[in-house]
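Standup notes
- HV: blocked on the assembly model, inputs below
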Amino acid sequence: MPTSLLYKEWLKLRLAWTLLLVGGAAFAIFLFFKLRYVYTINDPLDVWNAWMTKAWLYFRAYQYAPLTLGLVLGLLQYLPEVQAHRIRLVLHLPLGETRAIALHLAIGAALLTAALIPAVALFTISGICYFPAEYLHNILTVLTPPILVGYGAYFATAAILLETNWRHRVLYLLLATGGLRLFMMENAYDTYERILAPLALWTFALALVPLYSSYRFRKGLR
Amino acid sequence: MPVIECDHLTHYYGDKPALLDVSWTLQPGRICGLLGRNGAGKTTTINILNSFLTPRSGRCLLLGEDSRRLTPAVKSRIGYLIEGHIQYGFFNIHQIEKFYSRFYPHWNPAIYYHLMSKLDITPRQRIATMSCGQRSQVALGLILAQNPDLIIFDDYSMGLDPGYRRLFIEVIRDYAADGKRSILLTSHIIQDLENLIDDCIIYQNGRVLIDTETARLRADFRKYTFATTPAVTGFPAIADIHDEPAGIHLERGEKQSALYGFLEEHTARAWLAAKNIPAETLRPAPLTLEDTFIALTGKY
């Protein structure tokens, strides 16, 4: 049954997801070549120093990409489900209702992960190629919050779309926007080092909200 | 054991009552029409049956299980047509069959493809690009392929032309011919249900107005017509008289008036006489299920 749901979601999202994957990867490749160009015309020490002291990071422009990917993927996955109450088709399947929604969320999160992998791989490779080994850990630490924002945006979009009450929708929107904003306030060297675990916990706690929204839908709570 | 058992259902939207102490049952092998005017409570009942709504009080049992906690095993025995023949538009007919087939242990693709073979569609055509009638056949075929013991059709006739409505009814009738399937359906096209439904439940303002066998309703509910005389023309300040306690409805026309109710001819004459309405030409008239429905629930 999970494979059947995966089949449905894949058919629904394959074209849009492929475009998101290609777009995200192309942007990361562009930033990779930009870094190479910066190295060509500057001394590596200056580049490393620029990040350490001036918070210049070559993939800074990418920090909004996971947010966009999560938001768009959430919209594409759940808008067709909530239009004309199509979500009832899923909830009527002989599968526990919570399990059915959880599987949809897992599939969406997996597709988001797959769309983010090329960029993460490319930034890791560029870190290995162009930065000292000590920097690599920090590159990944700085990259992680925007990626968590991508997942948070995806779960928040799902929760808002599955919710039937406008007041709850506004509340989720404010909570998600306010909470996720904290993830994108800095991108300097060593930022978020000590707070990554709570941020990850907050993000994945957001996965419970769509389950609550679907529960409210099932009970007819308005 | 009843297939559906609604037990003292009461529900409100805010302060507005939607269902008030509604109780009825559907027995195995029966086709039941759940009828009512707009806002009578049909959709609320269907939503409660499908656990998309929790009633304020009362409960529904489907195949012996509380509708709020249906197990996957029982769900697989219930087919449900959502109002408007909602299905996933991004599938073609083969993909959607493949998707649903894995969920139902008694899946029978033959009945689905038999219905699809009658449609003028290409194999790779997406459901979103089909006409409303074609989509209804896809939705119906998928439900029948489940081999369910109970089917709930919520306003199956919505958006269908007379041809597709007739086709829909014929398919349902053939499917239920073995007497093993139970079907609950709602529709506003009551003349289509005339020779289909075994039982008839009519809602009025959130209450059960009539719950009886259709044959019995047809036999006992009568229509009498009589010429509208000047006295009658002069009598009512309004067009109709609706005597709810007596279950009698008088429809006044310019030339011809009609009296409806569960009443013999002599009772009809006595009622009219008591109202000072001359009706010498009173005689029984043929009555359709739709006439009965309108007489019982009114036009306004």
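- HV (later): unblocked. The two ends of chain A are 30 Å apart (CA to CA). The interface with chain B takes residues 1, 3-4, 7-8, 11-12, 80, 84-86, 88-89, 91-96, 217-221 of chain A (CB under 8 Å).
- Next: hand off to the docking folks.
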